[in-house]
Amino acid sequence: MNGLVCSVCGAPLKEAARFCGRCGAEQGLMIARDAGAGPELREPRAPMPPLTMRGLGVALVVYFVALAPMLFLFARGGMPSLGELDMIEWLAGVAGLIGIVALGREGLRGLGVPRVSISGAAIALGATAIVVALVELLSQAFPRVFFDEALYLRAWYGLGFAGAILHVAVIPAITEELAFRGAVLPGLRGLLGDRTAIAVAAMLFAILHLSVPSLVHLTLLGAILGAVRVKSGSVWPCVLIHAGYNAAVIALHW
User: Fold this and answer.
1) To the nearest whole number, what is the mean pLDDT of the chain?
2) Distances, alpha carbon 80 to alpha carbons 77, 185, 253, in Å
3) 60/183 Cα distance (integer angstroms)
4) Are 125 and 225 in contact (CB under 8 A)?
5) Which residues does 198 contact at the CB level (< 8 Å), separation at least 6?
6) pLDDT in tens, 17-65
7) What is the CB neighbour count within 10 angstroms for residue 137?
8) In the Cβ-directed half-sphere of 134, how many Cα atoms lie within 13 Å?
9) Which residues contact 188 (CB under 8 A, 6 or more apart)?
10) How far apart are CA 58 and CA 157, in angstroms?
């Protein structure tokens, strides 16, 4: 324990907590436990939901609504149709929107105008480019492990490049970001703190794709998107980065 208590209700506060778990007061209202030490004011952090079980419940429900159809298709075996893939994506997006509304004002803030800095955008784009390069290196080094997704899109689904970008980059970027950075991550932040919530949401994001070879780079991508969501306060930069990442991977193998 760090010796800090909430100035509103007196509950002990952990350093990682941004809100008081008892009354929901912001961490900036903390005072030292020792009498006479005076208030300890902190620089305001990005808004996030209070520490409540409701946020955790929203995160878990949205995640399992997105995961359940993926598990069904995996258990069924065979290649899913393009319609089935789109249905799964839109189901995740709708679940994400419902989750955002269920989180209330703090969730709806994620649909607002982002806070963007040139340095932050450069770091995020550079980190995403590194992940794209990692995927390319792994696919070249282990071609039997990393299947050629572009080949499947052309041969199995008969998609041209524009269709592939739509179904693999644009639609998933919107729907998955609404679900993960719109509802799952904000639902976890009040309970776990920023860094832990970003890491957990990134791992859940990677697991959702049910691809063992992709776990590492999808976790890295999820961590980048989570950090962008926290720093910008909005899901829309995450949508753009996610779409750009998927489009770059497709374009490199087209």
Assistant:
1) 82
2) 8, 28, 21
3) 9
4) no
5) 185, 223, 226, 227, 230
6) 555 555 544 544 444 444 444 444 444 444 554 547 788 899 999 999 9
7) 10
8) 16
9) 55, 56, 59, 196, 197, 200, 201
10) 34
* DSSP letter, residue 4: E
Nearest to 151, CA basis, from 139, 133, 138, 134: 139
CB atoms within 10 A of CB 243: 19
The helix (H) or strand (E) run that includes residue 5 is strand 4-6
**What pLDDT score does 90 carry?**
94
CB 99 within 8 A of CB 187: yes
Confidence of residue 213 (pLDDT cuts 50, 70, 90): confident
Query: What are the backbone angles phi and psi of residue 96, rounded to the nearest 5°?
Result: -65, -45
Rounded to whole angstroms, the Cα distance separating 200 from 206 reads: 10
Q: If we measure between CA atoms, which residue out of 63, 59, 68, 107 comes closest to residue 87?
A: 68
Q: What is the pLDDT of residue 83?
A: 87
Query: What 3-state class would DSSP assign to 12?
Result: strand
Q: Strand 12-13: give its sheet, edge to edge.
A: 12-13, 4-6, 30-32
Instruction: Say which amino acid occupies 106.
Output: E
Angle at Cα 244 formed by Cα 242 and Cα 249, nearest 5°? Answer: 100
Q: What is the DSSP string of 113-146?
A: -----HHHHHHHHHHHHHHHHHHHHHHHH-TTTS
pTM (two decimals): 0.78
Q: What is the average per-residue pLDDT within 75-101?
A: 90
Condensed to tens digits (0 to 9), the pLDDT of residues 1-15 reads: 456 666 556 667 666
**C-beta atoms surrounding 147 within 10 Å:** 12
Phi-psi region of 27 (alpha: psi -120 to 50; beta: other; left: phi over 0): alpha
Tokens of 31: 């005072």
